[in-house]
Amino acid sequence: SHQMMPKALSELGLIPAIDDLTKSSLYYANIKYTFEHFNISDNERLPENIEITLYRIAQELINNIIKHSKAKLVSIQLIKSNKHILLVAEDDGIGIDKLKLGNGIGVTSIKSRLEMIKGEVNFDIGPEKGTIVTIKIPI
Predict the structure, then answer these.
(1) Which terminus of the chain is more exposed, N or C, with fewer CB under 10 A?
(2) What's the pLDDT score for residue 94?
(3) DSSP designation for 65
(4) CA-CA distance, 9 to 15, in Å (whole number)?
């Protein structure tokens, strides 16, 4: 599993790694973004398998936003509670077609990663437009 772990994640931790990921991806795609985290500090470490899963899923979600959403604004939040960690990615793009959702390699990859750690994913249409993806992982 160490070979699969990105350098930023292994050296800096989950928060700096996701922050770096958003900067290096969304900034250069000319998409405005916010990344916030609640109840988890910059240097706090979670179990390695959870960190890798969250990072890879964030990577997949950001790639999908850049490729498909036509979004101008993205919000990513990482929220830790006593029992779960949530990753929420919301964009103001064109939204998703829930009927076509299960067919993509990215969605399949996200679901299979979450199955291994008993996590859940929920895809929703935003209040006005866009997409909200919520990842929930027990800790």
Answers:
(1) N
(2) 92
(3) I
(4) 8
